[in-house]
Automatic annotation (TrEMBL):
Keywords: Membrane, Transmembrane, Transmembrane helix. One of its GO terms (cellular component) is membrane. The keyword Secreted does not apply. One of its GO terms (molecular function) is carbohydrate:proton symporter activity. Pfam families: Sugar_tr. It is a multi-pass membrane protein. It comes from Aspergillus ochraceoroseus IBT 24754. Its main location: membrane. The lineage of its organism: Eukaryota, Fungi, Dikarya, Ascomycota, Pezizomycotina. It comes from the Eukaryota. This is Major facilitator superfamily (MFS) profile domain-containing protein. The keyword Cell membrane does not apply. It is found in: Membrane. InterPro entries: MFS_sugar_transport-like (IPR005828), MFS_Sugar_Transporters (IPR050360), MFS_trans_sf (IPR036259).
Length: 116
């Protein structure tokens, strides 16, 4: 039985961007010198913006029509309002608490991938 790995999954814009990130940074390093972190930083920020843009144009707005179709017509408005407000609340809590958690619990190495 084969395990499902990222090589067996179909390519998505996010996988394509992340796969292309290292060659872009490497090319910038070759052109402008390895000691310059400016090119790597600009490339990283640019690809983060591209990733966010692609996400917001594809999967990002999907919860809105899904929650609108889940509820009956008579309870649709309060149902969507509660669903959207809970989405905003939990996104805020996740964004606010995630950077604080590793430092307070001695797990500084856990989120190193997202800090790079």
């Amino acid at each position: 039985m084969k395990l499902l790995t990222s090589t067996h999954l179909p390519p998505t814009p996010t996988r394509i961007i992340m796969k292309d990130h290292l060659p872009c940074v490497s090319t910038g390093g070759l052109l402008f010198g390895y000691d310059s972190g400016v090119i790597a930083g600009i490339t990283t920020i640019s690809l983060i913006y591209v990733n966010i843009t692609i996400y917001n144009l594809s999967w990002g707005p999907l919860p809105w029509p899904c929650t609108a179709e889940l509820f009956l017509t008579r309870i649709r408005e309060p149902g969507v309002a509660i669903a959207v407000s809970s989405q905003w609340l939990f996104n805020f809590l996740w964004s606010f608490c995630t950077p604080l958690y590793p430092g307070r619990h001695g797990l500084g190495h856990v989120l190193t991938v997202w800090r790079v």
